[in-house]
């Protein structure tokens, strides 16, 4: 060593972090998605589980980095692996050693896909690929599958004999009457129930199904979900006109919590759960809520033009999205959420708060630009302090 230089000892540790195998391992498919990130966040915060998430490519920085940064000091750091719904073999290592699987991944296109099979095949084959791997794993005890109310009421709205438009977990969408996404969810859920029913005793595991309504609520990464796109458009001044369309909604935070409770509670086995907080919301009300909070902060008013039904009918003649929603215009749908409240114990978030929280998160994540007048969410004044000023 040259004189004057001090000796530096570099300790290279090759020891891997000690994994506590007694802590249940949960697989979350489609980890970078909107609902999945919330679910992973809640699982990691609980500190009760080791969590493994699947992404299509670990090379996708845009999807992987926000996940790594979700809960950096989690008791059990998030593990990520690659899996694609249409690659059966990729699910075998993904489910290895897992006690629970939350199968959330499925294509959710923003519009009607040109080729229905682009949505249906990954949804149905993907579900069967995940479930087959679970059956072979020897470790999976329960799968929670994310279906949708699309598998409950689609094609029944306005149907003779269903004039009350009230739906429960007993209802099933007839696949032949559904648009591609709705069909994909119905067929995938049906395939899952048939799959577990036909399993030999030694390969059996439990199945619980979540049937959420349209999901809104804050984004926690820049990968905003498809449904949040409508609020983003409203806040960005891209929704000048709206039709009178009933909207059935649920907060993403409630959906994530519901998945975890459904995974934990023994009595949930074998059941579907409609996840709905408010059946009586509408696109018009959503615009009103956004406008009330954000027009004073310099954002353009959304949905100022109330599109009459006959105009919607005309548009539906050449626009596939409008032709899909046209039968539901002006109709009030009701989804019974007793099971969610009584069995899962979910007390749903307030709908207006859900919309406002969504908007602020979109601005804070840079998905909608800040206006000069933007002041951000004002902290709520505690009840007792309101008269103090
Ligand atoms: P999202 O943000 O679009 O997430 C979907 C996830 O699925 C993404 O991580 C996506 O991965 C993954 N995925 C899609 N195709 C895949 C494939 N071939 N292989 C592997 N992964 C694939 O949607 P979300 O709103 O969170 O929805 C999650 C689930 O909830 C879906 O099953 C959806 O049908 C259901 N659901 C959603 C709503 C709603 O309003 N959002 C309502 C009811 C039910 P990439 O990021 O790589 O594309």
Summarize the SSE layout with pairings.
Elements: E1 25-28, H1 34-46, E2 50-55, H2 61-68, E3 79-82, H3 91-95, E4 100-103, H4 117-137, E5 142-146, E6 166-167, H5 180-197, E7 206-212, E8 214-216, H6 228-235, E9 241-242, E10 246-251, H7 252-264, E11 272-275, E12 278-282, H8 283-294, E13 305-306, H9 309-316, H10 320-325, E14 334-335, H11 338-342, H12 351-364
Parallel strand pairs: 1-2, 1-4, 2-3, 4-5, 5-7, 6-14, 7-11, 8-10, 9-13
Antiparallel strand pairs: 10-12
This protein binds NADP nicotinamide-adenine-dinucleotide phosphate.
Separate helix tally: 12
Which distinct ligands sit in these coordinates? NADP nicotinamide-adenine-dinucleotide phosphate
Report how far the terminal alpha carbons are from each other.
Answer: 71 Å
How much of the sequence lies in strands comes to 5-15%
Spans with pLDDT under 50 lasting ≥5 residues? 1-14
Radius of gyration in whole Å, from Cα? 23 Å
Morphology call: globular
Class of one domain, according to the CATH hierarchy?
Alpha Beta
**Element string (H = helix, E = strand):** EHEHEHEHEEHEEHEEHEEHEHHEHH
How many strands in all? 14
Please characterize this protein's 3D structure.
The chain is globular. The protein starts with 24 loop residues before the first strand and ends in a 25-residue tail after the last helix. The chain has helices spanning 34-46, 61-68, 91-95, 117-137, 180-197, 228-235, 252-264, 283-294, 309-316, 320-325, 338-342, 351-364; strands at residues 25-28, 50-55, 79-82, 100-103, 142-146, 166-167, 206-212, 214-216, 241-242, 246-251, 272-275, 278-282, 305-306, 334-335. The strands form four sheets. The chain has a seven-stranded parallel sheet with strand order 3-2-1-4-5-7-11, with helices on both faces. A three-stranded mixed sheet has the order 8-10-12. It has a two-stranded parallel ribbon with strand order 6-14. Helix content is 34%, strand content 14%. It has 389 residues and is an alpha/beta fold. Helix 4 (117-137) links the parallel strand 4 (100-103) and strand 5 (142-146). It has twelve helices and 14 strands. The protein has a domain at 25-217 and 249-277 and 333-348: Rossmann fold (3-Layer(aba) Sandwich).
């Amino acid at each position: 060593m040259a004189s004057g230089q001090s000796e530096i000892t570099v300790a290279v540790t090759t020891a891997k972090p000690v994994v506590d195998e007694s802590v249940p391992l949960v697989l979350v498919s489609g980890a970078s998605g909107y609902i999945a990130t919330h679910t992973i966040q809640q699982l990691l915060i609980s500190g009760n589980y080791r969590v493994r998430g699947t992404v299509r490519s670990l090379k996708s920085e845009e999807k992987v980095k926000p996940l790594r940064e979700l809960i950096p000091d989690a008791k059990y750091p998030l593990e990520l692996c690659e899996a694609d719904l249409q690659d059966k073999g990729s699910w075998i290592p993904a489910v290895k050693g897992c006690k629970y699987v939350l199968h959330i991944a499925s294509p959710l296109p923003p519009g009607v896909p040109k080729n229905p099979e682009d949505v249906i095949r990954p949804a149905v084959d993907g579900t069967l690929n995940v479930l087959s791997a679970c059956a072979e794993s020897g470790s999976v005890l329960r799968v929670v599958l994310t279906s949708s109310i699309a598998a409950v009421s689609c094609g029944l709205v306005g149907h003779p004999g269903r004039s009350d438009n009230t739906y429960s977990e007993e209802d099933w969408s007839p696949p032949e009457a559904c648009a591609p996404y709705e069909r994909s969810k119905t067929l995938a859920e049906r395939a899952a129930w048939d799959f577990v029913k036909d399993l030999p005793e030694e390969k059996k595991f439990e199945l619980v199904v979540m049937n959420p309504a349209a999901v809104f609520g804050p984004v926690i990464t820049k990968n905003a979900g498809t449904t949040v796109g409508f609020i983003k458009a409203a806040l960005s001044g891209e929704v000048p006109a709206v039709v009178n369309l009933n909207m059935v909604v649920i907060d993403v935070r409630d959906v994530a919590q519901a998945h975890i409770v459904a995974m934990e509670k023994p009595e949930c086995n074998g059941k579907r759960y409609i996840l709905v907080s408010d059946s009586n919301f509408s696109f018009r009300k959503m615009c009103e809520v956004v406008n009330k909070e954000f027009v004073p902060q310099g954002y353009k008013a959304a949905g100022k033009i109330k599109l009459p039904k006959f105009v919607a009918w005309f548009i539906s003649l050449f626009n596939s999205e409008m032709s899909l929603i046209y039968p539901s215009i002006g109709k009030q749908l009701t989804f019974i959420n007793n099971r969610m409240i009584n069995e899962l114990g979910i007390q749903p978030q307030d709908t207006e708060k859900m919309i406002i929280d969504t908007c602020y998160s979109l601005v804070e994540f840079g998905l909608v630009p800040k206006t000069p007048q933007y002041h951000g969410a004002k902290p709520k004044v505690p009840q007792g302090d309101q008269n103090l000023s």
